[in-house]
Amino acid sequence: MAHTSLARLERRTKLPLLLAALAIAWLARPSFASTYAAYIPLDSSIYDELSTLNDLGLADSYLSEIQPISRVEAARIVVEAESKLSEMREQNELARSIISELRLQLPDEVQWIENDHEDNLPTMFHPLDRVEGEYVLSEGKRRELNTTQQNGSGIDFQEGTPLLPNNDGLATDQGSNEILRWSGWGGVGGFITGYGEGALAGPITDSPSQASRAQLLTGAMVVSLGNTAISFGQEETSWGVGHFNQLSQSNNGQPFPALRIQNIHPGHLPSILRYLGLYRYQAFLGQLNSGRTFSRPWLSGHVITFRTLPFLEWGVEHTIMFGGSGNDNYSPAGFVGNLTGLSTGNSNVSNTNTRFGVFAKVYIPQLRNTQIYAEDLSEDFFQTFGGGFKLPFKGPSYTAGIFVPRLTIDGRTTARFEYALTDKEYSVHSDSLYWTYNNALMGSSLGPGAWQANFEIDRWVTLQSRMGLDAFYTRRQAIALPFYTPPTRNTETGYGVAFDFLRLPLEISPLANSLGEMKARAGMEYVTDINYTNSNSFRALMQLSLAFNPAWGGLVWH
Question: Hey, what CATH class is 2-557 in?
Fold first, then answer.
């Protein structure tokens, strides 16, 4: 059933997308089929469950290098995994449990896929799809770097919460903090979807009227035309193969307003390009914040990932920052050139800052599906051949890792080692085109001139509960730039450990079998010469989160 569904999806609309790195254009094929594309928040346990199914070899068409994914895409993967599991001689109890949990979390969408009724859905409204209450106890100094104080150039960022990166830029104060999140979605006419997630964050003693407490984390309107989703709003973004940090795009900072286009389900390119295998893509155009020399610059991004072979996934990514107040001396054709990255003009007229990356992941079935992955991201261009040719390999940063999903034969213990290195020019630029949004890094939380090694081991102690231990070592160098001199040349060094616990959704009988979910994190880190000063800091974190998914569903109009 899953293979039939995927084949049907491949016949749906393919709108044109120009991916600068590959220079491939797709011709749209007319289709009137459409569905609702409500995207799953990146902190949802659904991603942990889908990754577990992939690690067990049951989700061949799950391309995790572009996130978030929609609810209906997650449901398609569930049906695919269940179909493949039923064909296996030896049944895996963990996989069976994960599939059951996902069916509870995506009941309507799984039914749509199974009944081949994904298209032409009735109007529906889910005003409270998920609510989450979170307590965070945070101690210790935040990492930061501000090179703009000397001449307005460089980079300016501050860590939101120590030991809690990739948290949508939700900043906390030292001491106790309370966070309330809630999300909902609705669909109209079978092809228009609206979804959003809001939050109240910070110490409970603060006035709720403070604008910094109430935030719209994500919120967008989506129009689906066949298998293509076009959306506008604030949406989370995560690209690449990194587990602890994403080099290009991550949810370390707040989502920014942008227009996006992407395919809902993976498909194949036409003609001979079909042999590249299943692919997913995303492209966006958005604007960043003011408060920099070039106020509200444009940010354009393109990414595509393929599963060319059963054991090989790879992709390319490209982003470019351009324009902004005082940096927009270009024609309409120049705007398009900047947007695509194909012709960025002259820096004396309007400056740009470009990132270009490649990533790959290899599966080794003979070693219990062990995964080896790597990513290279380059910052901006350098001139070659007397300045007449540009190559996008200046300031490379790297991520590489090995993941053993079945350290024990029962598949319930995993181990991961990951190393990340950022160049001294990572996220930095000689003017205000640096890679932050509202003073938070949009990519890796390490910042420039740093490296980190992580070793993590996880164990499913039951079929619904997982515990993990992550030990890490971090170094950041005080880098002197042409436009910035650090206060000291001290190298910052951090030694840390974190414990994680996840309890998958549990049916609560007194509440009509609504779902309750829990996750917790405790971490500590000792940092010497923090922020390149002569001071040291002990940083600690305690996080407890309880989520609730009501079972009474939403409103449906046929």
Answer: mainly beta
Quote the DSSP letter at residue 340.
Answer: H
d(CA 234, CA 248): 17
d(CA 231, CA 260) in angstroms, rounded, equals 5
CA-CA distance, 427 to 254, in Å (whole number)?
Answer: 16
**DSSP per residue, 102-121:** HHHHSHHHHHHHHTT--SSP
What six digits make up the tokens of 271? 């003609």
Give the model confidence (pLDDT) of 344-390 as tens digits: 777 777 889 999 999 999 999 999 999 999 999 998 765 555 555 55
Find residue 484's DSSP bridge partners. Answer: 481
- How far apart are alpha carbons 430 and 181 in whole angstroms? 38
CB-neighbour burial class of residue 538 (10 A; exposed 0-12, middle 13-18, buried 19+) = exposed
Distance between CA 435 and CA 401 in Å, rounded?
24
d(CA 184, CA 478): 44
- Residue 339 parent element (H or E): helix 332-340
- Please name the helix (run of DSSP H) or strand (run of DSSP E) that holds residue 23, with its range, or none: none
Q: Which two tokens stand for residue 165?
A: 């990166």
Of 178, 179, 174, 180, nearest to 138 (Cα)? 174
Give the bridge partners for 260, in sequence order: 231, 284
For the stretch 41-44, contacts whose Cβ atoms lie closer than 8 Å and that sit 24 or more positions apart, written own/partner, are 41/68, 41/130, 41/181, 41/183, 41/197, 41/217, 41/218, 41/236, 42/67, 42/68, 42/166, 42/168, 42/236, 42/238, 42/251, 43/167, 43/168, 44/130
Round to whole Å and give the CA distance between 417 and 400. 9
Does residue 392 have a cis peptide bond before it, meaning omega lies within 30 degrees of 0? no
Domain ranges, ordered by start, for the chain: 2-557
Q: What is the pLDDT of residues 506-556, one digit of tens each?
A: 999 888 889 999 999 999 999 999 999 899 999 999 999 999 999 877 888
Q: For residues 263 and 73, what is the distance between their CA atoms, to the nearest angstrom?
A: 10
529 CB neighbour count, 10 Å cutoff: 19
173, 139 Cβ separation under 8 angstroms:
no
497 burial (CB, 10 Å; 0-12 / 13-18 / 19+) is middle
Give, in degrees to the nearest 5, the angle at Cα 55 between 98 and 374. Answer: 140
